[in-house]
Amino acid sequence: MDAPSFGAHAIGFGTAPPCVPANRLTPKHASPYDLPAPHRQLRRAALNESNSGPIAAPALQLVALSKRFGDVVAVDNVDLTIDEGEFFSLLGPSGSGKTTVLRMIAGFELPTAGAVLLQGVDVTSRAPYDRDLNTVFQDYALFPHLSVQANVEYGLRVKGVGKAERRRRAGEMLDAVRLGSFGTRQPSQLSGGQRQRVALARALVNRPKVLLLDEPLGALDLKLREEMQVELKTIQAEVGITFVFVTHDQGEALSMSSRVAVFNNGRIEQVGPPREIYEAPTTTFVATFVGTSNVLSVEVSGQLLGVDAAHSLRPERIRVDGEPAGADEVSIGGAVDDVQYLGSDSRIRVGLSDGSHLTATVPSHTAADITKDDSVILTFPSSAAFKVVDTGTAAGDELADLEPLELEAVSRNPDS
Ligand code: ATP
Asked: 198 in a domain, yes or no?
């Protein structure tokens, strides 16, 4: 892609003083006044500059990043900081803007507004080849006529690295992705998972500061995909390079990432470690897109919890064993209208007095006697319900249809 001439040389960044590693560039070594005016303020804010001494820059920063395609706002004012060595996932449904963000980081797309900083250096308008990062795509994009070894060596050859050094580094990287003995094969002689690992080795061999991965496991079948999730996480830990991973698969994001950003309509709804995202979602969208959740409307929350705000409640936090509510627990009665047997767990959908539903997920061995039309009592700790901002619910979620309820509270601990 042609980019405006606003590269490292022109803005005076990227050249560290001798003996100062690039990742130690600080405001002291790289003055913001070398930047064109609109970027100075962004960069100052992004680097949190102060007089209190040098601060190591994060691996990647997005500052007020936006992208419009005509009338479509694909990315809307996104701020994000990704630290060195993170396995960071951009998670969201189709069309939520995650690929456009990745493409702006890679330099394939110019932002309409905002900045992309790589280790503190503004790379917003640099061409893709002038950014110290690499991208792995879903379709591998291997050269079919080159051997595995030659594919991995390719980037080093372009950079003019000598033959012996190329051999050594490509060999090391193939070992790292457990394909050390596959160097002489052609891509057509490999499985899908092996091809994806060659693509990974090829992208990592130049030791980029950041590796971008755009749904790299999307083309693999489920079993291979699960194996590759473990492989990818292990390889990332071994090489220590920052990974930015785009996926619409919440299980994948939760199981692999140090942190996750959940996208919806071009905006980030929540950023945090997987456990926090799953257990304490802050919006109705996150609650229903990441796993399944009951969303308690403002009215229901008021009646059950005495709080005037919508709440999310994970199905596995609800018990249906009929035991009395303990301290800080809340109970409500209803009639079972569906039991779904899922193997180790069963999902029990309970109709409430106003015609809406709550769903509980319980171990199947505790639910053997529960059948349709049984009267049950649903009990959950009030601390399991999290206040959420109403940003809409993920499309297709069966739990998203809760209307304001006339609830029949069976019991509620008065102290809760
Ligand atoms: P997916 O998982 O399906 O790839 P995504 O979350 O990555 O989705 P994007 O590809 O970033 O979403 O798209 C965000 C929005 O921008 C969508 O509405 C999309 O149609 C629109 N969009 C993306 N690229 C273009 C383009 N080149 N021209 C016009 N609209 C675009």
From this structure: no
Give the closest residue (by CA) to ligand 1 atom 3: 94
- Same domain, yes or no, for 288 and 247? no
At 117, is the pLDDT very low, low, confident or very high (cuts 50, 70, 90)? Answer: very high
The verdict on the CB of residue 368 being under 6 Å from ligand 1 is no
pLDDT in tens, 65-104: 999 999 999 999 999 999 999 999 999 999 999 999 999 9
Model confidence, pTM:
0.78
User: For residue 348, is it within any domain?
Assistant: yes
Does residue 214 have a pLDDT over 70?
yes
Q: Based on the fold, state whether residues 322 and 228 are members of the same structural domain.
A: no
138 falls within a domain = no
CA 414 to chain centre: 40
User: What is the band of 394 on the pLDDT scale with cuts at 50, 70, 90?
Assistant: confident
Is the model's pLDDT at 22 over the cut of 80?
no
Q: Please state the domain count of the chain.
A: 2
Q: Going by CA atoms, what residue is nearest to atom 10 of ligand 1?
A: 99
CATH number, residue 77: 3.40.50.300
Q: What is the mean pLDDT of residues 328-352?
A: 93
Tell whether 218 and 250 lie within a shared domain.
Answer: yes
CATH number at residue 365: 2.40.50.100
Q: Which domain holds residue 310?
A: 284-412
**Residue 247 CB less than 6 A away from ligand 1:** no
Residue with CA nearest ligand 1 atom 15? 74
- Is residue 197 included in any domain, yes or no? no
